[in-house]
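WP5 quarterly update. Target: DUF4817 domain-containing protein. Source organism: Cryptotermes secundus. Length: 376 aa.
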Amino acid sequence: MATFTGAERVRCVFWFEETKSATQVQRKFRTQYRKEPPSRPTIYSWHKNFIQTGFSVRHAKSPGRPRVSDATVEQIRESFVRSPRKSTPRASRETGIPNVTVWRVLRKRLHLKSYKLSIVQHLTVADKVVRKEFCMKMFHRMQDDEKFLDSVILSDESTFHVSGNVNTHNCRIWGNENPRVALEHVRDSPNVNVFCTLSKERVYGPFFFMETTITGIAYLDMLQEFLIPQLDEDVQEGRIHFQQDVAPPHYLGEVREYFNTLFPGRWIGGGAPIAWPPRSPDLTPLDFFLWGFVNLYCRLAHKNNTTIATFADDIALLAANSDPVVTSQHLQHHLKLLQQWDRKWKIKIDQTKSVQVTFTTKRITFPPVTINNMRI
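Structure tokens (predicted):
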């Protein structure tokens, strides 16, 4: 595309004003400058710009996007004052203002932010009183014995749902500051149940229940066969304060009798020497950190071509395909995702305790997969 200097543009405008003919301007241009002249539309455009601006033959600068009026801004502000939980598409429908304008005004003009809601259990007035009393008791124990928390082992089960979860990504509140609003949520029926305990030094578990619903007997059997053998030395020396919540399986008479024998006066729970307040998951790090971390881990690690399965305390990563090379590729890709996540959170996978097992009716060899660059 040909370029023209400012002097050439001005000369063309003067010639056009004199002759009123773009063709004659082109002829004069060829004669004087010895090169191809601008097109007739270009000459018309230069002349028009000069007439409109009075001094410039260049295109006038665009004023840009028109500024949203103060009345529109106020209309959007009032809409969200009335209902701060509404979405921007809904506000757009109600006000007739484009959705992108609503969003831009909220962020740029009103300086509002979108806050994600948290899902919590409903607390009654009585619950709050019991929670306060428990926290004060723990506070006094920690004042009397600065190593008290070192002896506490916290336990909990978590239910991982396949469906029925509230999508908190779409639960938003617009405001100048975090409104600290939470959604009340009643626990749904279980799907996969996991037990874990946490102390200052380590994590015990996880243990995966084969039962769809955890009963008191199943819970007691897990304690006797899985958890307590790992704590045997500390149990014998009386160094442990064991905590469990008030879930129905924990309240079984045999379970409480078992704890009274193992931890006389030193266990926390329903009907325990130290009563645990009901509906208080926010008081244990398993609920306010560990389960959320594990749930996020599982979501990020999930792939369409592989499946994660559990049996007792073992976790299996499964892939199936008629092509053995593709099968191994799917497994290896998933393992790489797991390793990336583990490195981010400084978690180590022990490849020596992992094994690759192949089930096939054909005499074919599956390419090996690796963890941390070591074949399993």
